[in-house]
Specification:
single chain; about 350 residues; alpha/beta; Isopropylmalate Dehydrogenase; ten-stranded mixed sheet; two-stranded antiparallel ribbon; binds 3-isopropylmalic acid; binds manganese (II) ion
Amino acid sequence: MNLRIAVLAGDGIGPEISVQGVKVVQAICEKFGHELQLEYAICGADAIDQVGDPFPESTFQVCQKADAVLFSAVGDPKYDNDPQAKVRPEQGLLAMRKKLGLFANIRPVETFKCLIHKSPLRAEIVEKADFICIRELTGGMYFGEKYQDNDKAYDTNFYTRHEIERILKVAYDYALKRRKHLTVVDKANVLASSRLWRQIAQEMAPLYPDVNTDFMYVDNAAMRMIQEPSFFDVIVTENTFGDILTDEGSVISGSMGLLASASTGEGTPVFEPIHGSWPQAKGKNIANPLAQILSVAMLFEYFDLQEEAALVRRAVNASLDACVRTPEIQVEGGAHYGTREVGEWIVDYIKQA
Ligand code: IPM
Ligand code: MN
């Protein structure tokens, strides 16, 4: 097929891992005979520095025309401790989500056998963890009415029926393809917005008789995720709860540097690692490129190019088995591979497969 991919490398370690992701896309397209067109565009702090806008119109245009966006990371410490800053790199990410209508954020939490010892949880608790968080991405407090002056401030957790129904539908479709267990996470004992979520989920559940739907308050879900992560199959929740729970999910697997995500909805889908821009590591060739590379696998899966995706996943697993790993996941005494070296090893594996 013809694939037009927008590449948004962003800040910090973004550019380094982006290069590795792009090389993998190229190697796969070459092997399977897909026509590939890459278009590069700026975002985040890099774009603020260049044009004063973290998601400029020109970048939006590039994304809109593409079939998919391969995104890396945005964020720069010079904005973190300045509450007065008028523009922030993160606003670029939010603008991208909103403008492309990416209401569904898919974050799989899976474990890799050889990395289970990196989990803060005991192996027997975490080893069977395998679930997906479906996070609503363009509503709730992130985008509801806001106000701030010196004495008071508020954010509004606003949701419409339409927004809730469409994300629940995505979640049910995932549940049907997996172990058919959907957990709707909310705070319906306190929040009106959550009560509407629960009401609508209860209306929809009978339409999916094969799926076992249950409901859990978010505080309880946070606890359960630590005590018994294998309980979960598909979790669906609103934007803010999903933000928090997916960070929790990413560390319990012991492999934050390996987790990828997809944001889908109305416009061009975006594929990105779930980790951030790790500014301290910028330019040091030490960042793990695997989450970016696995986001390439998710990209191919989105287009139902299953063989292509499977080869990317095989290559990643082979690199782990061969202990071709960046320092933070290397075994004791194992050689240290850099971002580039891991990427090159994986590309070679793909070429020879
Ligand atoms: C994420 C990030 C973003 C969010 C930030 C960078 C705005 O934490 O993708 O989870 O809160 O959604
Ligand atoms: Mn987050």
